[in-house]
Write a structure and sequence with these properties.
This protein has about 70 residues and is an all-alpha fold. It contains two helices and no strands.
Length: about 70
Amino acid sequence: MNNTARQTGGAVGVAVAGAVAGPPTAGARFARGFHAVGLGTAGLYTAAAVLAPAVLLAVRRAGGER
């Protein structure tokens, strides 16, 4: 299940990145789109890095640690 979820997430991520960036033949527009994809990805990683410790701490306080 974990491998399937990982591969599905990767495929969806590549598809979304391609849809946002546009066709590679568009030149500068493609580069701007790809930069937007990179900034969006960086934002998501930052949000995950900030939220993960808070979520883990809340789970520990609720007695969910095993």
